[in-house]
Amino acid sequence: MKKLIGCTDVVFDILRTKNKCLTDSGEVDMNALKRAVGEQEEWLISSLLENEICRKRFFIRCGAVYVFKQRDFVFFLEQDMLDHSYTKFENKIGLATGRGKLLKDYGEVVLYFPFKDCVLEGGQSTEEGVDIYFEANADTSDYVEKKAKRKEVFFNAVIGSEEIDRLLEPKAFENVRRNTGNGEKRFAGFQYDERGVIKDNLVIKGNNLLALYSLKERFLGKVRLIYIDPPYNTGNDSFGYNDNFNHSTWLAFMRNRLEVAKELLADDGSILVQLDWNEVHYMKILMDEVFGRENFRNEIIWCYNGPGSPKMKQLNRKHDNILWYSKTGNWIFNGDDVRMKSEVHVGGFNGEMNSDVSEGYTEKGKIPEDWWELFHTEEDFVEEMKRIFAEYKLNSDADWLKAAVAARIRVDGEKRTGYITEKPYKLMERLIKMTTNEGDIVLDFFAGSATTAYVADYLNRRYIAVEQLEETQEKIKTRLKHTEYVYFELARNNQRAIEKINTCKNYDELLAFFERMCERYFLDYNLKVREFREKVSREETFMALPLWRQKEIFCKMLDLNQLYINYAELGDIRYTVKEEDVFAANEFYKK
């Protein structure tokens, strides 16, 4: 046992000496450390080899050569390094698996991708996303106030297949209402088409995996197009989600949702998944497996001007990839709707689209979107510029430099709503026209600011928008205020407890909430309540943990099968659901 502790101390010393694989607060960044092991980075291997304790434990000598026992070292990281820091508390109160790994290491269903409405922050944080902390100054025997960009930490849940009980059953609803386009009114029932399919547009707030399984009850094989713009897993803090996450868990997260999404598609339906370079190649392989390689239709490239600088040591990012799969070999493709006219930008590259330049369409059907057209003959150029000057009232010949002729779709999402990943209307218009007809259902279960829903409505398609982020709800409401739709939320149970945990400002508030958790909510059946209440909660080492970590452990105490109320359990006296919400759920699920 002493030897194991010695190894732990040595590894900590190596990381701190090398200033590698550490968070801003000085804790071990386990994902970064595992990547360093996987890539066998020289600084790590040589440092371990130089230490006698680590050399004996993690290397085997073959002649004059030492071979690194990578598997043993990874096991050590999972078993002992974690136990040295945080995991020991989860072991004490019954939340570890007892198999040498935590639940997250072998689970099959990723319930959550870390959302910003589930943020678990540590430190005294400002609204600008900066943490204020104090660092000891040995020279002055005082503490110096410092600032650092906030490192947001998120609770994530992965549930093993043997632990899934009622998780994926259809959910009850709450806060149901109808938006008329001129305001809201009480929900009085759904409208149906001639086939008995709900023809109301739907806006759903809640976990998108669970929402998809609820939609499956009424929309199995009914959706013509699914478009999603999921978290890219890049670590870009400007994104509405925290999209910096473990690669394998990200793929599991996506697979869970793609499998049920496929069931919602009509036989001639399509799915479009938009990603950047970071995960698109892995997603292609995943979608080949879920939808079949034979149903891969195209990779669509959407061009834009992305960030880049010499310091980045890479080329500018300038496009996203859109993977297009059909459900079967019979799919809709409205080729005529893909063609585009040339358009005028006034004001240089940042100007607005203002006018058609060419009459009709180009010979080959479309203009390349990354191409700028200039007039080749002086006579044609002068005549065209005269028309532009007259139309836009440009005052001098020098102003011609402000005009450019192009067929580029502008990236202006942030300008419109502040949601930086919002896609331009014209991109969505082409995608929807290409794969659907009027009256078809379009589903987006990463709805964001509801661009997909807005354009679908404009094109006389029906839409279903699913979103969990609290911060986007007002944007969705504003974007869709002139459209008609039915809004509802998945009825919360333990999800309310998670929301309450996230609002706690200190450990005292968390501890006070623990008793309410025990009385009101469903706890993990492995949780040793008395052990936590009488021992762990009073230990100085636990009380000294960062607030975000304390919150994470509190969240893990909850039974994740019980985050939302199942429709089948609406009669349970433990739940209080309004009569109108019960009526809406009965209307939705009736056969």
UniProtKB/TrEMBL annotation:
InterPro entries: DNA_methylase_N4/N6, DNA_methylase_N6_adenine_CS, N4/N6-MTase_EcoPI_Mod-like, SAM-dependent_MTases_sf, TypeIII_RM_meth. Residues 223-476 form the DNA methylase N-4/N-6 domain. Its EC number is 2.1.1.72. One of its GO terms (biological process) is methylation. Residues 41-95 form the Type III restriction/modification enzyme methylation subunit domain. Keywords: Methyltransferase, S-adenosyl-L-methionine, Transferase. PROSITE patterns: N6_MTASE. SUPFAM superfamilies: S-adenosyl-L-methionine-dependent methyltransferases. It catalyses: a 2'-deoxyadenosine in DNA + S-adenosyl-L-methionine = an N(6)-methyl-2'-deoxyadenosine in DNA + S-adenosyl-L-homocysteine + H(+). The keyword Plastid does not apply. One of its GO terms (molecular function) is N-methyltransferase activity. The keyword S-adenosyl-L-methionine applies. Belongs to the N(4)/N(6)-methyltransferase family. This is site-specific DNA-methyltransferase (adenine-specific). The lineage of its organism: Bacteria, Pseudomonadati, Bacteroidota, Bacteroidia, Bacteroidales.
